[in-house]
Amino acid sequence: MNRPDSPAPACGCCGQPPVDASRRRVIRIASASLAAPLAMAALPAAAAAAGDRLVEEDAEGAPQPLRLSDLKPGKPLVAWPLDTQRGAPRDETRLNKIVLIRLTEAEMAADTRARAAGGVLAYSAVCTHQGCDVKTWLSKEKALVCYCHSSKFALLDGGAVVGGPATRALPAVPLRLEGDQLVIAGAFTAPPGGAPA
Ligand code: FES
Predict the structure, then answer these.
(1) Going from the N-terminus, what domains does the chain have, and what CATH number goes with each?
(2) Are 134 and 8 in contact (CB under 8 A)?
(3) How far apart are CA 166 and CA 50, in angstroms?
């Protein structure tokens, strides 16, 4: 279900090559390989709809809606919205890719906590700088980092930019619970994706 990948670009702002992630003391999300930069206009519009369930990005076989118990505290998981009418993931565009993480609600900003379900937060998994995957998790800072040019997003604070060249917060997706199942409660808070390089 992954989109084709290509080498990371140099930063559009500073011209520097991608940072060598092996020098960081981080936990990498075990999922797809490095993603291509992405301009929003190049692909269909993102469409995470209220009522969609979520399914793990790399799941095999029939899609199984994710449950709260599938999210281990502090361990990010990449998912697609699951169109329950078709019984299929909305994987036509990387812009629909969502990163889920279960954190402590008491540590969240009020508007962030309002979008959480059982402590699980959902954000676009596509960097708002130039569209690479945000897939490096800094557990101490509770921040996601983009591999390409190290933009850093604070997940307890609405995905706010706290480092790197990105200028736009990571779009969030409100969640709710139905029983133990995670359900999308509304649209992305802003259009996901990066600006053209
Ligand atoms: S694409 Fe440049 S920091 Fe993410």
Answers:
(1) 53-184 (2.102.10.10)
(2) no
(3) 28
Atom of ligand 1 nearest to the CA of 131: 1
For 94, the 3-state DSSP assignment is helix
Q: Which residues pair with 55 in a beta bridge?
A: 80
Q: Are 62 and 88 in contact (CB under 8 A)?
A: no
DSSP per-residue string spanning 37-60: P-BGGGSPPP---TT-EEEETT--
Nearest Cα residue to atom 3 of ligand 1: 149
Using the CB atoms, write b or e for 95-121: b if 16+ within 10 Å.
Answer: bbbbbbbbbeeeebeeebbebbbebbb
For the entire predicted model, the pTM comes to: 0.80
CA distance 194 to 170: 10
pLDDT digits (tens, 9 = 90+) for 86-114: 889 998 899 999 999 999 999 999 999 99
Ligand 1 neighbours (beta carbon < 6 A): 127, 129-132, 146, 148-149, 151, 164-166, 194
